[in-house]
Amino acid sequence: GAVVSQHPSRVICKSGTSVKIECRSLDFQATTMFWYRQFPKKSLMLMATSNEGSKATYEQGVEKDKFLINHASLTLSTLTVTSAHPEDSSFYICSASARTGPNTEAFFGQGTRLTVV
Amino acid sequence: QKEVEQNSGPLSVPEGAIASLNCTYSDRVSQSFFWYRQYSGKSPELIMSIYSNGDKEDGRFTAQLNKASQYVSLLIRDSQPSDSATYLCAVLMFSGGYNKLIFGAGTRLAVHP
Questions:
Q1: Distance in angstroms (rounded) separating the CA atoms of residues B109 and B47
Q2: Beta carbons of A110 and B104 less than 8 Å apart
Q3: B25 contact residues in A (CB cutoff 8 A)
Q4: pLDDT digits (tens, 9 = 90+) for A59-98
Q5: Chain A residue at shortest CA distance from B106
Q6: What is the rounded distance in angstroms from the CA atom of residue B38 to the CA atom of residue A46?
Q7: Contact A104 B99 (CB under 8 A)
Q8: Mean pLDDT of all residues in chain A?
Q9: Cross-chain Cβ contact B98/A51 below 8 Å
């Protein structure tokens, strides 16, 4: 499968600070990237879908100003958790696919475990 | 109704047996379906994709799709302890000009020696 790299893998930050998570497709151009969060023993919750060069589409209930997503190039998308609070602590995972439309496989980064203290 | 539904399990099978994992979805027009495996603390890994009705085989894995019944399944033959993980069913929905990859809650599989 294709390679998606996510960085950092773990981050601990103080409450009120912002954290940026990077997601890079290493061997293909990612037209679409998905951002998920996952709580322990729960499934992946889609936060937003971003297409290169356009604004991200956020799922209902996800605060756009809280979770800033930028997809400036075909190989890089970033998620910035602004003014983080302990309840934002979670496992954040990005996924990237080469096309928009049906029959498109998506590959995951390694995930970022965020702990806000 | 949830968009993608799976039995949470755990599904326990003996080593060497066939594990059968099931998934139903609500969006009738979805065309793309995936099975991911996730080990504890790790991100999901793509196992199979299936787009047409019928069976698709890859090694010990067989995915089955029935669009009329909105049902997709994954069979794991000759199950091994290393197959113990959570298996996530995902459906790609195309709506409003963009894709949404939606996951089920996952089925936890335990293969015991």
A1: 15
A2: no
A3: none
A4: 999 999 999 999 889 999 999 999 999 999 999 999 999 8
A5: A43
A6: 16
A7: yes
A8: 92
A9: yes
